[in-house]
Amino acid sequence: MPIPPALLTPDLSALTDGIYPQPLRQTLAGQTSQFITSTPPALASPQPQASPVPVVEKAKRLAAWTAVDRHVLPEHKVIGIGSGSTVPFVVERIVSQGKAVNKDRVFIPTGFQSKELIVNAKLLLGDVDQYPVIDVTIDGADEVDHDLNAIKGGGACHLREKVLAEAADTFVIVADYRKNSEVLGTNWTQGVPIEVAPFAYAKVLQNLHLIGSPKATLRMAKAKAGPVVSDNGNFIIDAPFPREMMQDPYTLLTRIKMLTGVVEVGLFCHMAKAAYFGNEDGSVLIKWHDGKTEHVDSSASPKLSQNDEISATNG
Ligand SMILES: O=C[C@H](O)[C@H](O)[C@H](O)COP(=O)(O)O
């Protein structure tokens, strides 16, 4: 199986002087994962060659940095951190705001991956049961429509993600240009992620087939025999629906949620205040909840020069 390219690692050197409590346990730093950024292990010489960052990764980073610059302000003390491959860039930008501002903040994860990101960045970790009111949550998405409705759950994290989105005064989505759609299901064709109680999965599947998703299937794990199990111990079903049903995601959400055995649906309707899309040309498109759009051209968007190259440490 090809090893995915390493994601860029935040420069944490400024945060290691003892202001932050040391982790109580060893984390997964150094392991290769699609989602976890960590300091790579020391490599024997010769040093690996730098290779250009793929355009999509730059776009994710631009979206994440721009959103952090605008929404994670010094007065914000409780911050929700979403899941996925765009979110490491959110943490990277927050770390770059400096230890003075970060020492009074607590960060709430949406799952195992974001918990590792927070701990590895030596930021203070909290949980939503301690902090049910969050100043701002920033998260990725699998697809976002013209009304800022989103499909989420490609990484099976949407239950906790929805709780943190709801708990937040401000919920902001960050993504690359591929996620920007008119209608959900256009680019993200594998279906709406649905978290279900394991013992009820067959019944939920049957009911999903009946309400309009004949191809709904249980999500199977890639490097394990059997189904994907969420951070909450549940199964995930992916349910593709026809375009006419995806055009009204709120109605679809309520229908799916009514099925007994469903824990949460990866349709986020009327939740986001703004969605930031990094573009291939270095610009950022911002879609606001009131229908307005804003275009930050490449000359005004955050500069990526310092990290334009990525070490091919996994190569
Ligand atoms: O369960 C996973 C989440 O909903 C992610 O936020 C979503 O899949 C987007 O991930 P990425 O930023 O990797 O596209």
TrEMBL record:
Organism of this sequence: Obba rivulosa
GO CC terms of this entry: cytoplasm
UniProt-listed Pfam families: Rib_5-P_isom_A
Enzyme class: isomerase
EC number: 5.3.1.6
Domain of life: Eukaryota
Family named by the database record: Belongs to the ribose 5-phosphate isomerase family.
Protein name: Ribose-5-phosphate isomerase
UniProt xrefs under InterPro entries: NagB/RpiA_transferase-like, Ribose5P_isomerase_type_A
An annotated Gene Ontology molecular function: ribose-5-phosphate isomerase activity
GO biological process: D-ribose metabolic process; pentose-phosphate shunt, non-oxidative branch
Region (Disordered): 295-315
Ranges of Polar residues composition bias in the record: 298-315
Pathway annotation from the record: Carbohydrate degradation; pentose phosphate pathway; D-ribose 5-phosphate from D-ribulose 5-phosphate (non-oxidative stage): step 1/1
Keywords: Isomerase
Catalytic activity: aldehydo-D-ribose 5-phosphate = D-ribulose 5-phosphate
Transmembrane segments: none
